[in-house]
Write a structure and sequence with these properties.
The chain contains ten helices and seven strands. Helix 3 links the parallel strand 1 and strand 2 (about 85-90). By secondary structure, the chain is an alpha/beta fold.
Length: about 325
């Protein structure tokens, strides 16, 4: 048995010990500096932004466009923006839900509303109709929220139609909608585009590989646009939330009850809308920032395998 009090049989040279000591201090110092920086950034994004509320119509424009806006985060975003005085153009596939949500927003917040029916899974043909609804509107904010729900399964079990739907809904919609509104914003030298990605963009995810990959695309595309148009007057935000209570997460029992790390869509939207103009890249919710910082303190392979095991424990993977 090794006696811990005895010296090692091959002791390290003094110089090597000094090097390791310095490396240890540097590693700990880096962790502390990163933790302090993350805390300051989080306070600025999620506290300061709430204290200094922007007048969104005056800052960006009178109209907000929200895709996937009849349920979950999209509906909550539309309501929150209407609460700030913005007129709302709702874009979604279900006409009955569109009419109902538009009526709710008009009666509750006293703003103008318009609706555009579009199934983003259909791809390119839908955008000519959406463009008609954008005409003669001062589009101040675009929220590219529409997304295809997650159903964990082996890639070989993905239906071909579902693969193309993922591309059309999660990827092409962001490109096409941004292309429709960005020129007008650039002419006016103001506006904001919020591209809703996901915390899964940071880690390849087994069994939801297409979803996480499309969200990584959204994050990459958004950050590139920020570099291109950084001095244009147009705000371009990358939003990477963790789990929020919505239809997309309802298949997992643990994601149905609100908690510290699991906000309702209304709570999340209230926090996320406040970050527009204060953070170019955010999870949108303060505890989600903590989650991301914690996960990123571990090696990527550890997080990837952790989520793989999580999905396997919750359902039979087909």
């Amino acid at each position: 048995m090794l006696d811990l009090e005895e010296p090692l049989p091959f002791p390290l040279p003094k110089a090597a010990q000094n090097v390791l000591t310095v490396v240890g201090f540097l590693v700990v110092g880096k962790i502390l500096v990163c933790a302090v920086w993350a805390a300051v950034a989080m306070l600025r994004t999620h506290l300061w932004a709430r204290l200094w509320d922007k007048r969104l119509p005056q800052t960006y424009g009178k109209w907000a466009v929200v895709t996937g806006s009849t349920d979950g985060i999209g509906k909550s975003y539309a309501k929150e923006l209407a609460k700030k005085g913005m007129n709302i153009l709702l874009v979604s596939r279900n006409m009955e839900k569109l009419q109902r949500v538009a009526g709710e927003i008009r009666s509750q917040y006293g703003v103008e509303t318009d609706i555009a029916q579009a199934d983003f899974a259909d791809g390119r043909p839908i955008y000519s109709n959406i463009e008609k609804h954008l005409t003669d509107k001062d589009i101040g904010i675009l929220v590219n929220n529409v997304g295809m729900a997650v159903h964990p399964r082996l890639y070989e079990r993905q239906m071909e139609d579902d693969i193309w739907a993922y591309v059309n809904v999660n990827v092409a919609s962001v490109l096409a909608m941004t292309r429709l509104v960005l020129p007008g914003m650039l002419r006016r030298k103001k506006g904001a585009i919020v591209n809703v990605s996901s915390i899964t963009a940071h880690f390849p995810m087994a069994y939801i590989e297409v979803y996480s990959a499309t969200k990584a695309f959204v994050s990459s595309f958004t950050r590139a646009l920020q570099l291109e148009y950084g001095s244009s007057g147009v705000t371009i935000q990358c939003l990477e939330p963790a789990f929020v209570i919505s239809n997309m997460t309802s298949s997992v029992e643990e994601f149905r009850t609100p908690g510290l790390f699991l906000p309702t869509s209304d709570t999340f939207a209230a926090n996320a809308v406040a970050t527009i103009g204060y953070s170019n890249r955010t999870t949108g919710y303060w505890t989600h920032e903590l989650q991301l910082a914690w996960w990123k303190s571990f090696p990527e392979w550890y997080i990837m395998n952790g989520f793989k095991g999580f999905f396997e424990s919750k359902q039979k993977i087909e």
